[in-house]
Write a structure and sequence with these properties.
The protein is α+β, with helices and mostly antiparallel strands and 370 residues long. The chain contains 8 helices and 11 strands. Strands 1, 2, 3, 4, 5 and 6 form a 6-stranded antiparallel β-sheet that branches.
Length: 370
């Protein structure tokens, strides 16, 4: 016959199965779900930063182009004759509003500069027909953005926009020198966020490593990302200077430039590990409370049973006067009352029996003497 299990062991198994294991399983599920949620939130956050960068670049480059269209409208109007005062006034106002504009050039159909604002006589008569962006604008008969290039005049990176109009072309030259400062205002060093900007020829315009910009190095991921781009942010893992980054890339359709945000994987992993640590800690605390509560409950159940067991042993040894105190639990208290009544009844019966035996014994002794 197998040895029976104690109620203490049974209660412990019950607590383990009904409380502890479900809490452990729930904790692991929370860790998995929370990790995925946190990863998605981080991705959304970085995507939002990329979109801010795209909008910032649009403001930096596209907005001046929109204003320059007013010059085109004036050039196309019938009131414009030669170097009109209104044209100069309008050009100076636009340059004042957008300091990134280095100059605005107006050329003939042959690509000869006829006017420039602000005025610089060294540019008058300059032939730009051999410039790549000019050729593309002529070929397409539409506006065309150049790739970034180092200007021998301004000694800084420049991007040019060539816009055709009825009697020639308007060329807008803008510096990229201030773009890091302009974009850097959106980021905090504590965020450990880095970024790069690549033009349509895959050449770095801006990068965390300034040498890549100065040496006009290419972004090797540009062509691959452009081929798979579907309008959203492209996320991938890259390595630079033996440090792993998550990169988030977005294209500016009007420029075909790529904006990329980099965040060290260690930062993201640290956030995930911290979240996991908090969840494990909370699960451990809940688990500890569950085990402690189970022990309190088991003591409230086991203690009355042990008292009843001890009382039965004492009574079985002949101590019929033994009584069990009342308990906090109603059922056990009623059981104790019944046990005490039974013990009282046994004691009375035993006393009566003893008296009867003593009486019979005396009667027997008396009869024997006669």
């Amino acid at each position: 016959m197998n040895k029976p299990n104690s109620i203490k062991k049974i209660l412990f198994q019950f607590i383990l199965i009904s409380i502890t294991l479900p809490l452990i399983v729930l904790g692991f599920i929370e860790i998995i779900i929370s990790s995925k949620v946190l990863s998605n939130e981080i991705s959304k956050s970085e995507t939002a930063y990329v979109n801010v960068m795209v909008e910032t670049l649009a403001h930096y480059l596209i907005h001046p182009k929109t204003e320059v269209n007013e010059i085109i409208n004036l050039l196309e109007s019938e009131i414009y004759i030669g170097n009109d005062h209104d044209l100069e006034k309008m050009a100076k106002l636009i340059i004042k509003i957008y300091p990134q504009i280095r100059n605005v050039q107006i050329t003939s159909k042959d690509g000869i500069v006829t006017e420039i604002f602000p005025y610089d006589e060294t540019f008058i008569g300059l032939d730009v027909s051999g410039y790549g962006y000019y050729k593309e604008a002529v070929k397409r008969n539409n506006e065309y953005w150049s790739a970034s290039y180092l200007s021998p005049v301004y000694k800084e990176p420049i991007v040019s926009l060539c816009i055709p109009y009825t009697n020639g072309y308007l060329i807008l030259n803008m510096t990229l020198y201030d773009i890091d400062i302009f974009l850097g205002s959106f980021f905090d060093e504590k965020q450990s966020l880095l970024y790069s900007i690549t033009d349509q020829n895959a050449v770095y315009i801006s990068h965390m490593d300034k040498n890549k910009v100065l040496l006009r190095e290419n972004n090797n991921s540009f062509n691959n990302n452009f081929s798979i781009w579907n309008g959203g942010v492209i996320q991938e893992k890259v390595k630079y200077d033996n440090i792993e980054y998550y990169s988030y890339s977005q294209f500016i359709p009007s420029l075909n430039w790529m904006v990329t945000l980099y965040k060290p994987t260690s930062i993201i992993k640290r956030s995930l590990f911290f979240m996991i640590f908090l969840l494990v800690l909370v699960t451990f605390i809940i688990l500890s409370i569950g085990i402690y509560s189970g022990q309190v409950i088991s003591r409230k159940i086991i203690q009355p049973l042990l008292s009843l067991l001890d009382a039965t042993k004492i009574i079985s040894s002949g101590e019929y006067h033994t009584r069990i105190p009342e308990f906090d639990i109603l059922e056990f208290s009623e059981l104790a009352g019944s046990f005490n009544a039974m013990s009282e009844s046994i004691m009375v019966s035993h006393s009566g029996l003893e008296s009867e035996v003593e009486k019979r014994t005396k009667e027997l002794e008396k009869s024997q003497k006669q």
